[in-house]
Design brief:
The complex is a heterodimer of chains A (239) and B (352). By secondary structure, chain A is α+β, with helices and mostly antiparallel strands. Chain A has 5 helices and 15 strands. A 4-stranded antiparallel beta sheet of chain A has the order 1-2-4-3, with helices on one face. Chain A has a 4-stranded mixed beta sheet with strand order 5-14-7-8, with no helix packed on it. Chain A has a 3-stranded antiparallel beta sheet with strand order 11-10-13. Chain B is built from 6 helices and 23 strands. Chain B has an 8-stranded mixed beta sheet. A 6-stranded antiparallel beta sheet of chain B has the order 7-6-9-4-1-11, with no helix packed on it. A 5-stranded antiparallel beta sheet of chain B has the order 2-3-10-5-8, covered by helices on one side. Classes of the chains: A alpha+beta (239), B alpha+beta (352). The interface between A and B is large, with 47 and 46 residues.
Chain lengths: 239, 352
């Protein structure tokens, strides 16, 4: 599809690569993001990748739309390799019904057992398309087709931090306690956002995630260690 | 020891803000920053700071601060009352839009903010706080920023980078800043094609009102319903301060500094950067309307605004002593009359 430029006022524009949420479209977004990050044109403030478009934020006093758009077009024409696959993370998840209050309801709606939902969710490798909604909230896909279900009609006012959730063909781990409309099927005992870390956000767009199912006792042990600062989240990165 | 402003009453919602935390939106980190960057720039200029240094943004009702330093120079910009309480003296009102030099033990009481959503207080030299991800802006929703990213609390001590006021006299702006009037100017898009022709025409002609749900994240607007062409939902994409998104109910939401980095509602238009200080000052009940401009026009307005602000800052002059004729000030005024003309000539930021 033709690349499309759309306006976000006089400080940003979007480079749209399509309408679909798929890996091929997102790879083009990430490739442009990487190129502009490696060689930022004068006046570029930052770029932010989303599913199918890149937001290009610039300083309208230091440059202007015409110049920045020309620089982005040059970067697009320059081609170059798509960025290599990001890091692989193995966060633990416990699919205990206490920790995944929507697991039973979701399984029933899908015509599956709770065990089957957990097994399917835990079997796939996910790709972090983008972060958004709140700091460190990763939109990861693609969820196995058997688990596809629209968001809850009534969003929850309080989703506990660490909740592992699904909606559509996506999954996530809530980094904070917050409102949320996704189905909660488990919980991760390690905070994916920690302001005390030099890099507070663990995941980055382009990373991959494969969940490690753990039982309740293991969950409790890790949660206690993480709470006491005795768990290094860096250890979740697969070699 | 050290030099501090000690919070003896926290007020209702005072936060440390600079011009925003850029560079981390790809991690989902909101930009935050001063709702009224013009007030922050001018308050900083009045105390001799770089324009973008972090200051105190005050909403609703300001704090009371005790000076625990030999001296400090402060300036407030915006619709707020200031009162100085000094031992052995009657409380004394202090004017905004000028600097004041305060001394050990003085209490500065910041009153109600009335006429806009926020006012701004700067201190000479700034606060000796540790930046988080390169910025001193507070993102309260997730507790990110100095002071744990929260508003001022009782007994907080705000460390000062300087332990005394700078040399030289206190200074003032010749007049309060002119924010301009009329419709907020917008660039249509990024998803204007998701709306009917009628919706676009309505958006650019109707009067909207700021609803009761209004905070640093955004303003829910009430007015004529804007009809989508098809669904209101899009694949989530990037937002900026000033983005106007329209959910399925057709009522626009004007996003401000604490907005999420990405969102899944179609956006009809974006407020131009030169008009963001005005947008950030809006309060529930305020009426507003919109006018479309091109990106090139928005850029010209922004460049002109930068000159106008530089003119205002250039016109900052020593405060005239009370009573008597101050010849030095008169001469100074003559010398800068050219600048004053630029200010007057530039107060109409609309180039149309």
């Amino acid at each position: 599809m033709e690349v499309r430029f759309t306006s976000s006022g006089d400080t940003a524009f979007n480079v749209e690569f399509g309408e679909a949420i798929d890996r091929a479209t997102n790879a083009r977004v990430m490739a442009l993001h990487a190129r502009l990050k490696a060689a930022p044109p004068p006046g570029l403030v930052e770029t932010m990748p989303t599913f199918r478009s890149l937001l290009v934020v610039y300083d309208p006093v230091a440059t202007c739309r015409r110049e920045m758009q020309a620089a982005v077009k040059a970067a697009l024409a320059g081609g170059g390799e798509a960025p290599a696959d990001g890091r692989l993370w193995r966060p633990p998840v416990c699919y205990d019904p206490d920790l995944g209050p929507d697991l039973a309801e979701l399984a029933e709606a899908l015509g599956l057992t709770a065990e089957r939902v957990a097994a399917l969710h835990g079997s796939a490798e996910y790709f972090v398309y983008m972060l958004g909604f709140m700091p460190g909230f990763g939109y990861m896909g693609d969820l196995p087709a058997e688990l596809e279900r629209p968001r809850r009609t009534e969003p929850r006012v309080r989703v506990p931090a660490g909740s592992v959730a699904v909606a559509g063909r996506l999954t996530t781990v809530y980094p904070w306690e917050s409102p949320g409309g996704w189905h909660l099927i488990g919980r991760c005992p390690v905070p994916l956002y920690d302001g005390g870390r030099p890099d507070p956000v663990l995941l980055a767009a382009g990373d991959r995630v494969r969940f490690d199912a753990v039982d309740r006792a293991t969950f409790d042990t890790i949660a206690e260690a993480a709470g006491a600062g005795r768990f290094d989240p860096g250890s979740l990165r697969a070699a | 020891m050290g030099a501090f402003l000690t919070v003896i009453r926290p007020g209702l919602f005072a936060t440390i803000q600079d011009l925003g935390r850029f560079g981390f939106q790809e991690l989902g980190m909101p930009v935050a920053g001063a709702l009224d960057p013009l007030a922050l720039r001018l308050a900083n200029a009045l105390v001799g700071n770089p324009q973008g240094m972090a200051g105190l943004e005050i909403a609703l009702l300001g704090p009371a601060l005790r000076v625990d330093a030999p001296s400090v120079r402060i300036a407030a910009v915006g619709p707020i009352t200031l009162t100085l309480e000094r031992a052995g003296e009657a409380p004394q009102p202090l004017a905004p839009h000028r600097s004041h030099t305060l001394y050990q033990g003085d209490v500065l009481r910041l009153g109600a903010v009335d006429g806009a959503s926020v006012a701004c207080l700067a201190v000479a030299g700034g606060f000796a706080l540790t930046p988080v991800m390169g910025s001193l802006s507070s993102y309260v929703r997730a507790g990110i920023g100095p002071l744990g990213g929260r508003p001022l609390g009782q007994d907080d001590r705000l460390p000062l980078a300087r332990d005394g006021a700078p040399d030289g006299p206190d200074v003032e702006l010749p007049q309060p800043p002119d924010y301009g009037a009329g419709p907020l100017r917008v660039v249509p898009g990024p998803q204007e094609d998701r709306f009917t022709e009628a919706a676009l025409a309505t958006f650019l002609s109707a009067t909207y009102r700021v609803g009761s749900q209004a905070d640093r994240m955004g303003l829910r607007l009430e007015g004529p319903v804007l009809e989508h062409r098809g669904s209101a939902d899009i694949p989530s994409d990037g937002l900026v301060t000033g983005s106007i998104q329209v959910p399925g109910n057709g009522q626009p939401i004007l996003l401000l500094n604490d907005h999420q980095t990405a969102g899944g509602y179609a956006k009809i238009a974006t407020v131009i950067s030169a008009d963001l200080p005005r947008a950030g000052r809006l309060r529930p009940g305020d009426a507003l309307s919109f006018k479309a401009v091109t990106v090139e026009k928005a850029e010209a307005i922004r460049r002109r605004q930068k000159q106008v602000i530089a003119g205002w800052i250039g016109a900052i002059r020593p405060v005239r002593p009370a009573g008597g004729i101050d010849l030095e000030a008169l001469y100074a005024e003559n010398l800068i009359s050219g600048t004053v003309d630029i200010v007057n000539g530039g107060s109409d930021l609309d180039l149309s």
